[in-house]
């Protein structure tokens, strides 16, 4: 018996129209678990070196984990894995809501999409019937329009829909996949970062709709009673956690906006400073007072961190959305010097509805504003795109999504745009390996410098978030590099395996909780040590994939601006030197068992059973 899993993968070839079931490899599941890890193994084994991410040869994987759709808190998650059109490297995006559980309840641990359809289609998995349906009438629609149209067509308002918007159709390199866009009753989600929506668009796949037959049992627990007992205790931990009760459940992720600005970490004016004078105006507290109308949660999650918001007056009156989350308030707000909550909310609605990754979009817009300020791009191309002016930046979001005018260049991402613009534009193009940097300036949190540089998908705050440990003194002196390399390495390994279960960053649970859940669900015999070793194995496998695509130490770096002193606020004059950064990187490589060029040694690969 294959406990914890359905044992099935749905394999779709859009070129031939082939639809078939494939058995899940049990040994791979034991070693790589699911989600991020198992997705990485499938991607590594399937793709040849150097394939174009937007070609029919790339694959798109929607994959659950052994804890997806269980009674564990935050078990509503799944993972999208592909080769990124933004970076040309490994890409995984982790999504909440209800789509992942629905896929597993439909009888599948994973869905693999291959090839390219000759015409627009959407995949319908509806109560056991699987069909590729014509999507010509959906092409051009926004994500919310697509969700509504498919639910109406299938006659079921509970059908879960993963869809792309115009940005995905136009192959914007940071287009994302939206899930159940703007369902007012339940939380949706986004497979953001790196351009999975463009991969979906390149395959002429507009959407995937799933409605499971809940009368059919698709997976079982190895120890059902033991699992129930463990999850009951996990729910108790979540509900008694003081930060969740008083902060996260009340304000969601925006609770960090004001503290990050006060600490000099909040990206402002394209990372020119870390302090935003209008942070209070776009804070979680201000959202709660003025625009939040309901709290929303994912499947089996009591945290309720999602905030359904509505703008009640002003020029953006009537705008209704889920969020904005911290990252969009930071990148579409402070990074563009926009301090009006209604304008940031409108921008956040647009990026979701058009199918754009909000972090990359806000980063690109801040870069474009600075290019305009420096005279690199003109008024005839972007209007009066000054920092702080909301109307031109709202218009530019739509131009990017539809690749109109200057939007066509900016749709390529900040790295390619800077290379095309020339001059010293690359000095203030804020990315790592082509992926735009998210909402924490590493000059206010030195560990984030190493976390961004070594992240497996390009600049990312989720692979190792050092900020809280640094500002609370857990790692000693705040502006120091001591202990950062070991902390980043350990968190990366732990998160790699947690994202393979798949669970949420916000679950206040520890390794022993996850190990007990994994073992009682699957019948595996993991210990805390072997569990973390699995995370290290997954991290190194992905490093091998990226090395195969050309990554070396030369790519584990930061943009020039982040080695310059911070200007203003609590971090005024603070900087991380290139020597400090390289010292951290050297220590990190040594801890990982990699050589000085960032390549795992034979001994490391043997230890991790990757040789």
Model description:
By secondary structure, the protein is an alpha+beta fold. The chain has three domains: 8-211, Aldehyde ferredoxin oxidoreductase, N-terminal domain (Aldehyde Ferredoxin Oxidoreductase,  A, domain 1); 248-429, Aldehyde Ferredoxin Oxidoreductase Protein, subunit A, domain 2 (Orthogonal Bundle), CATH 1.10.569; 446-507 and 527-607, Aldehyde Ferredoxin Oxidoreductase Protein, subunit A, domain 3, CATH 1.10.599. Helices cover 40% and strands 13% of the residues. The protein has 24 helices and 17 strands. The protein has a six-stranded mixed sheet with strand order 2-1-6-3-4-5. A hairpin with a 6-residue loop joins strand 4 (78-83) and strand 5 (90-95). Helix 7 (224-240) packs antiparallel against helix 21 and helix 20 crosses helix 23 (578-592). The longest helix has 21 residues, at 528-548. The mean pLDDT is 96.
Q: How many structurally independent domains?
A: 3
Look at the helices and sheets and give the structural class: alpha+beta
Largest sheet: 6 strands, mixed
CATH-assigned homologous superfamily of the largest domain: Aldehyde ferredoxin oxidoreductase, N-terminal domain
Molecular shape: globular
Unreliable stretches, pLDDT < 50, 5 or more residues? none
Distance between the termini: 29 Å
- Mean pLDDT over the residues: 96
The first-level CATH class name of the largest domain: Alpha Beta
Strand order of the largest sheet: 2-1-6-3-4-5
Per DSSP, what share of the residues sits in E-state strands of 2 or more residues?
5-15%
CATH architecture of the largest domain: 4-Layer Sandwich
What gyration radius follows from the Cα positions, in whole Å? 22 Å
Record field, number of beta strands: 17
């Amino acid at each position: 018996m294959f406990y914890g899993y359905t044992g099935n993968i749905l394999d779709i070839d859009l070129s031939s129209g082939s639809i078939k079931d494939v058995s899940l490899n049990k040994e791979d599941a034991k070693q790589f678990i699911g989600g991020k890890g198992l997705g990485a193994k499938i991607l590594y084994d399937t793709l040849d070196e150097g394939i174009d991410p937007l070609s029919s040869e790339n694959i798109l994987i929607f994959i659950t984990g052994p804890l997806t759709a269980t009674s564990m808190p935050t078990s509503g998650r799944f993972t999208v894995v592909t080769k990124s059109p933004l970076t040309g490297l490994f890409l995984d995006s982790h999504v909440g809501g209800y789509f992942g559980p629905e896929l597993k309840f439909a009888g599948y641990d994973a869905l693999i999409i291959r090839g390219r359809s000759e015409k627009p289609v959407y995949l319908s998995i509806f109560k056991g019937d699987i069909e590729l349906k014509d999507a010509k009438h959906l092409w051009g629609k926004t994500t919310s329009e697509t969700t509504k149209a498919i639910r109406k067509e299938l006659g079921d308002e509970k059908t879960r829909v993963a869809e792309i918007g115009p940005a995905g159709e136009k192959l914007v390199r940071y287009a994302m996949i939206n899930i159940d866009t703007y369902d007012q009753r339940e939380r949706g989600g986004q497979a953001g970062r790196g351009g999975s929506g463009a991969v979906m668009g390149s395959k002429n796949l507009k959407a995937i709709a799933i409605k499971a037959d809940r009368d059919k049992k698709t997976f079982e627990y190895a120890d059902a009673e033991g699992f129930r007992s463990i999850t009951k205790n996990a729910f108790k931990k979540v509900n008694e956690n003081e930060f969740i009760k008083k902060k996260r459940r009340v304000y969601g992720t925006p609770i960090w906006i004001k503290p990050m600005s006060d600490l000099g970490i909040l990206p402002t004016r394209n990372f020119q400073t870390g302090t935003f004078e209008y942070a209070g105006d776009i804070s979680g507290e201000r959202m709660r007072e003025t625009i939040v109308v309901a709290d929303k949660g994912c499947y089996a999650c009591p945290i309720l961190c999602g905030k359904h918001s509505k703008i009640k007056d002003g020029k953006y009156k009537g705008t209704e959305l889920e969020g904005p989350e911290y990252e969009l308030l930071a990148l579409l707000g402070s990074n563009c010097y926009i301090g009006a909550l209604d304008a940031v909310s409108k921008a956040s609605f647009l990026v979701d509805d058009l199918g754009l990754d909000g972090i990359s979009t806000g980063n690109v817009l801040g870069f474009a504003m600075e290019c305009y300020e420096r005279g690199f791009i003109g008024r005839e191309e972007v209007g009066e795109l000054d920092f702080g002016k909301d109307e031109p930046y709202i218009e530019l979001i739509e131009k990017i999504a539809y690749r109109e005018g200057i939007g066509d260049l900016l749709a390529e991402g900040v790295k390619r745009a800077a290379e095309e613009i020339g001059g010293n534009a690359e000095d203030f193009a804020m990315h790592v390996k082509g992926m735009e940097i998210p909402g924490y300036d590493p000059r206010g949190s030195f560990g984030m410098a190493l976390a961004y540089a070594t992240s497996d998908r390009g600049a990312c705050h989720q692979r190792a978030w050092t900020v809280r440990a640094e500002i609370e003194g857990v790692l000693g002196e705040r502006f120091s590099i001591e202990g950062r390399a070991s902390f980043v390495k350990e968190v990366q390994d732990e998160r790699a395996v947690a994202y393979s279960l798949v669970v949420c960053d916000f679950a206040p649970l520890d390794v022993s909780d996850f190990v007990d859940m994994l073992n009682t669900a699957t019948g595996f015999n993991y210990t805390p040590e072997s569990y973390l070793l699995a995370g290290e194995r997954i991290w190194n496998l992905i490093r091998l994939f990226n090395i195969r695509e050309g990554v070396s130490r030369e790519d584990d770096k930061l943009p020039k601006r982040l080695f310059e002193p911070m200007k203003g606020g609590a971090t005024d004059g603070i900087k991380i030197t290139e020597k400090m950064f390289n010292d951290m990187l050297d220590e990190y490589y040594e801890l990982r068992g990699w050589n000085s060029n960032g390549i795992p040694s034979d001994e490391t690969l043997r230890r991790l059973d990757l040789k």
